[in-house]
Amino acid sequence: MSNTQIGRISIALAYVAIAILFALRTPAWEAPDEPAHYNYIRQVAGGTLIPVLEAGDWDNAYLEQLKAARFQPALLDRLATIQYEDHQPPLYYWGGAIVYAVTNGSLTALRLYSVLLTLGTVWLTYSIVQFLRPDQPAVALGAMALVAFLPQQLAMTASVNNDALMGLVAAGALFDVLRYTPPPAPSPQSREGNISPLRLGMWMGIILLTKTTIYFMGAVFLLALYLRWRRDGLPLSVLLRRVLVFALPILLVAGLWWGRNLVVYGVPDVMGLRRHDSVVIGQLRTADLIAKEGSNYLPLALRTTFQSFWGQFGWMAVPMDTIPSAQVPLVYPALGLLTFVCGIGLLVGRLRGLSRDALLIMGAMIALALLVFLYYNTQFVQFQGRYLFSALIPFAFFMAEGLDVWRRRFVRRMWLLTPFIFALLALLDVYLIWRVIPGALMYGS
Q1: Residue-wise burial string across 342-364, b where 16 or more C-beta atoms lie within 10 A, e elsewhere
Q2: Where are the alpha helices (DSSP H) in 377-391?
Q3: How many domains does the chain have?
Q4: Please, which residues bridge with residue 318 across strands?
Q5: Is 54 a residue whose pLDDT tops 90?
Q6: Who contacts 232 (Cβ-Cβ below 8 Å, separation ≥6)?
Q7: pLDDT tens per residue, range 60-102
Q8: Is pLDDT above 90 for 393?
Q9: Range of the domain at 95
């Protein structure tokens, strides 16, 4: 077994071990929206295949009371009424309903279900980056380590949340998109397999049933179809035929899923978002926060988004640097410095050897995820960096690539240095889940 294989397996096993710690030691319901996701699964397990979002599924006063009291058991008598995620696509919840039924509704078992899904994302991260950089295992292992040990990623994917399936589906779709648009032969990267427009369309159909925050992958698929057509120099009719084949499974799934939503929520609410906006009365609106904060709004948004991308736990109540006796005071400046160093490394290295098509696809994912994040924040205050995790693998690739530029310049022989630096996050994770998170989020603390 090669050193690279040992490294890949070691990262995967370490992820599982630490994620299990997060699943076991994070106090019940102390992850964003966990009660609502759990109740969706409970309804499916009870026979409601796709729940309906209705007035009363969001009680802002009760939810704020629960969060303030750290979900004290005495207050949980109405927990089952928290159902404001009922408009979500159903795929994650269908799988969760099986786990629910087998384990009699065990919260821990459902958290471990999310961990299992995310293990697939971690494993695929290596495959994706190794496909892009087959001669640089340090970059593949580094990106894999960052996806595995990013503290906020661990906290979210060790909870009951459809982000876990979103990450896995986004990873699988990205891998096939890159293999559909490989560099021209005779590059050793040219491993298209059986990737076809129909297969890409099937991925998009799965995405429609997974989570709305990755619907932007439709634009990425179309970009890939265009890049491949342009590279092959074929007539326009070929591109149109490929787009049509790509659209067939999408039309089938969209017809069923969106058609159901139109019947339930009315025209033109194909995703139930209008119903959601009318139900979540009391959720902080962007216009209200701007009126309150004025010129401080943008610095607040940037700071909170950066912190919550790396790690801000519970319901955004526990930054890593503000916990008495257990704080990590310089963690955000250190992570900011790491991000800056990796970014400068990208500029210095200029991504030499990476195909332009791959660069466009990875860049498009990040740009579109950012646009979705910004759009969501035009209405509601949601400075949660986890909403950018739909493009986590491209971000991890660019971070690892940028850091490895410096490693190749100054310590070329120490190829394990790049993954080692990102793997240091695992030590931070263990400290956080052992020392910080349970004490900060447990009721009575």
Answers
A1: beebeeebebeebbebbebbbeb
A2: none
A3: 1
A4: 313
A5: yes
A6: 238
A7: 999 999 999 999 999 999 999 999 999 999 999 999 999 999 9
A8: yes
A9: 3-441
